[in-house]
Amino acid sequence: MFERFTKDARAVVKGAVEQAAAVGAASVAPEHLLLGLLEREGSRASFALAVLGGGEWKDAVRAELAEVRRRGGLTRAETEALAGLGIDVAEIVARVEDAYGIGALSGSRRGRRVGHVPFEKGAKGVLQGALRIALARRERHIGDEHILLALVSRPGVPAEVLAGHGMTYESVSRVLHGGGEAKAG
């Protein structure tokens, strides 16, 4: 499949691996693909992010993703659902961090053997989604814009974080492919 990726899409995947390695993650997650996208400039996806206000909120997205990592990957929706059952995730995180240190729930592999960082099922699903989106548009190559569209179309942390900033599949698609105003949300 990677032979169909454009230079920009390959750079996003490489950036995702670097992002995962930088935080000591045991695997590349969809969040790392989003971070890889945020690092890009001069590509179709970076254009869409900029049009939709990405320059103004990139740091906020990075901070939100770091907080999700700190919660062990739980989305805001999952945290709220647990709160509805009387489970205070913030309290659990605080107690675990008191006992084992800051970031203990982050899935870090610090201190473990460093080597190949595999892609977790969710990240593979994003890349497969990017392929499906490209094929549906009858496009020969998979670009970073297809990765962005796949991230906003799949349930999970990246879609939730981007939606919180007005980024939806529809708004990104409008910017990339036309069909109306290019407004967020």
Automatic annotation (TrEMBL):
All copies of domain Clp R, residue ranges: 2-185
Database matches in InterPro entries: Clp_N_dom_sf (IPR036628), Clp_R_N (IPR004176)
Pfam families: Clp_N (PF02861)
Keyword RNA-binding: no
MF-aspect GO terms: peptidase activity
GO biological process: proteolysis
Domain of life: Bacteria
Record keyword Nucleotide-binding present: no
Keywords: Hydrolase, Protease, Repeat
Protein name: Clp protease N-terminal domain-containing protein
